[in-house]
Amino acid sequence: MVREWPSNLDVGELVDGGWRPTPFRQFILKIHSRCDLACTYCYMYEMADSSWRTRPKQMAPETASATVTRIAEHVHSHSIDAIEVILHGGEPLLAGREAIRDIVTRVRSAVGGTRVKVSLQTNATLLDLPYLRLFDELDVHVGVSLDGDAAMHDRSRRRANGQGSHSAVMTALGLLTSPAYRHLFGGLLCTIDLRNDPLGAYEALLAFDPPAIDFLLPHGNWSAPPPGRDPESGATPYADWLIPIFDRWYDAAHRPTRIRFFSEIIRLLLGGSSATEQVGLSPAAMVVVETDGSIEQSDFLKSAYQGAAETGLHVTRSSFDDVLRHPAIVARQIGERALSATCRRCPIAKVCGGGLYAHRYREGHGFANPSVYCPDLFTLVTHIKHAVEARPRARGEERRSRSTGPGRGAPMHLGEHRIPARTFSELAAGQGGASAVAQLAAAQRSKHILLVRGVLETARQVGHPRAASVRRAYDLLAAVQRDHPEAVDAVLRHPSVGAWARHTVTALVTGREDAAPEQLAGLAAAAAIRSGTVCEIDVPAVEGVVTLPSLGQAVLAPTLSRATAHCFADGADVMADGTVVRVPRDPRQDAPGWRGLRTLSAEAEETPLRVVIDDLDPYRMPGTANMGGRLTPAEVRRWQSTLDGAWSLLVRHHPVVAGEVAAAITVFTPLVPPEQGQSSATSRETFGCVALSTPPDATTLAVTLAHETQHAKLSALLDIVPLTKPDDGSRHYAPWRPDPRPVPGLLQGAYAYLGVADFWRRQRHLETGEAAVEAGAEFARWRAGARMVTETILGSGLLTEPGTAFVAEMADQLDRWADEPVPAASRALARERAEHHLAVWHATNS
């Protein structure tokens, strides 16, 4: 008898070759094996496997206890920082509230400090207020199965007596999406039925404003094909059903939800990894425990043949490490090596990943086959690939950009950001003016909103212990937005907010301990104080310091980690452990226990500039080693005096630069000065902030602002239009750096020095004597240096099509300046400095 693959997979050979299993992070617990519906397409009850008939209806307490012990054992053995527990069935709500409370409580207690996200997939017919109160208490997230409107849904999702279930589901969704419980809403699961209109089904699902939608291909395989899928035909009925939904979703000005199937394909096309078994080649890190304690593979395999999901292992006898060595589990963790020869030759193999494992089965051959949906998957992936290439979206497109939902405050509105061709050309020439910078700043505001929303969603998804307080902080922020949008806007635009949010999302995803999602409460408190909203909210304290972005810091006892902000019409009190810090009516002013963010203001020819000195926020300039401390009052006065002169110079003699600076720069962050000269920097994460050491004079500050505004403009543009391809490891000479630079770094430098050259091109005519020679030398040196580097970039092969056009326009602008006369003394000085830099660079880097 021929053994079907993967039963003949040699796990020992894989281990000897260096392969190691991926520990389980997702545990699907079948807490009840029966269901109160009789859905026609159900793989549990209507397909090849009937093992449910011999299993206990409900997981017994002793089985639950053994399961929890095995989960804790696995978590501790592999030092896993976060897991997901999915309560499943059958219909898990048939298990009852106490059984659910017991197993959720047991798991969280057993794994100690490991974060546990708990979710539940239900048909919702039994979902009522007592269940929702329990889920709110336990932070259990609820996914609901819904196939469309009443006719679509009731076509397949019926009770045993033939009665439809749509009406009961509508009642349950009304409760789940109410303001009190909407934060528990995990999304909707829709099984595709070719008889249903795709856009009609999609619109019916969108009516509930779901945070996510899963479209599920009906389970089937080569030996038992799904409805409408002829294995011998090249027809693509399922791709044809999904593509209109994708086009509607992808081309929408505001994405109404996340569709996981599409999002995963896009992520894979862009070089990422998959987080679902539907597509991609990421190792499957999930395991199932049945009601009798049997440890099984994905229950989707029950659609293939009797016993397909079985491993022969049991929680009372086997560890989950034992399961990791089972050939069937290993087959779903070895990526491309598990694909058939046909799949390995396919150009989209790494995206499709062979499709869902269960859909590859063919009797007599096992699972070493393409998916029975192969033509559909190829057509769908190819369509999405062409759409992404032809209609690229702004970065961060997978973030949701819609209302936060009814009853939870007004949405923080987003718009799609596109740069007109004329504006793009003006920016490429190093200019653009205030109007172009305002467009870039608007896109950065949207980026901050997306990142803040990402903090909320990621904290929920990974089961962070503070996720509920993060939800409350977001709700307060949205409520303030409804009546005082300018207050929320001022907080969201503060540069450090972007750096904090990006750091937090990354830390949450990677499981780092320095994730700080609860700082969203600091944003909400700052917005409430700015607007005079009467409220109170718990805020985090880091060694007793509470940071309120855009306002300042309250300093409490260093042992404290939390405080409460009591906000009222003309200020706030930050309180903890009997200590009260009063935030003054004008928060820029210092007060006992309060350190305010001070401001600098300048005006010339009725053109104002106002910047905040942020010398407090821990996220004010990420990755900077020479961060300065808090300025003294005398230093603040010195900065103010220098800014007065610099602003007058810019407004009177560099008006386009002045307009761009006023539109882009809102914050100065002090740096420790270097041994010689001045230090300055910007960060792509903190648009609007210039970090700089104390400027020695007005002209130096003016050229520094011109230089750093160029960096800010380019960084903001890169969030909308990708100009470079991925780094290929090559490094090149830059006449302003001591080290070899990658092409993206060259582009940043060349664009900044395009602006510096332009500044000195005008400034040299204002100077006299040696200052005029110096200014002419700066112009000559940087127009030549920037032009040389643009040539390097254009020849690198690492520019996108828009990037090539952008750098070519930079080069053209520099060429237009090449014939402008420069005195001999200035030319000689520029040449001497350039040759010296090159010689030192070669000596250092050869």
Explain the overall architecture.
The structure is a single chain. The protein is α/β, with parallel strands linked by helices. Helices cover 43% and strands 13% of the residues. α16 runs antiparallel to α17, α17 (467-483) crosses α18 and α22 (655-664) packs across α23 (698-718). The longest helix is centred in the middle third of the chain and has 29 residues, at 433-461.
Please tag this protein with its features.
846 residues, alpha/beta, 27 helices
Physical arrangement of strands within the biggest beta sheet = 7-6-5-4-3-2-1-8-9-10
Q: Ranges with pLDDT <50 over ≥5 residues?
A: 393-411
Question: Mean pLDDT across all residues, rounded?
Answer: 91
Structural class: alpha/beta
Give the overall shape, derived from the CA principal axes. Answer: globular
Strand content: 5-15%
Number of helices: 27
Count the E strands: 22
What Rg is obtained from the alpha carbons, in whole angstroms? Answer: 30 Å
Amino-to-carboxy terminus distance = 66 Å
Please give the structural blueprint.
Blueprint: H1 11-16, E1 26-30, H2 61-78, E2 82-88, H3 97-110, E3 115-122, H4 129-138, E4 140-145, H5 150-154, H6 166-176, E5 185-191, H7 198-206, E6 212-216, H8 237-250, E7 258-259, H9 260-269, E8 286-289, E9 294-296, E10 310-314, H10 320-324, H11 327-331, H12 341-344, H13 349-352, H14 374-390, H15 421-428, H16 433-461, H17 467-483, H18 485-492, H19 495-510, H20 520-531, E11 535-540, E12 545-548, E13 552-555, E14 562-568, E15 571-576, E16 579-583, E17 594-596, E18 598-604, E19 607-613, H21 633-653, H22 655-664, E20 667-670, E21 680-681, E22 689-692, H23 698-718, H24 743-763, H25 769-794, H26 801-817, H27 824-845
Parallel strand pairs: 1-2, 1-8, 2-3, 3-4, 4-5, 5-6, 6-7, 19-20, 20-22
Antiparallel strand pairs: 8-9, 9-10, 11-14, 12-13, 13-17, 14-15, 15-16, 18-19, 21-22
Helix pairs in contact: 2-3, 3-4, 8-14, 9-14, 15-26, 16-17, 16-19, 16-22, 17-18, 17-20, 18-20, 21-22, 21-23, 22-23, 23-24, 24-25, 25-26, 25-27
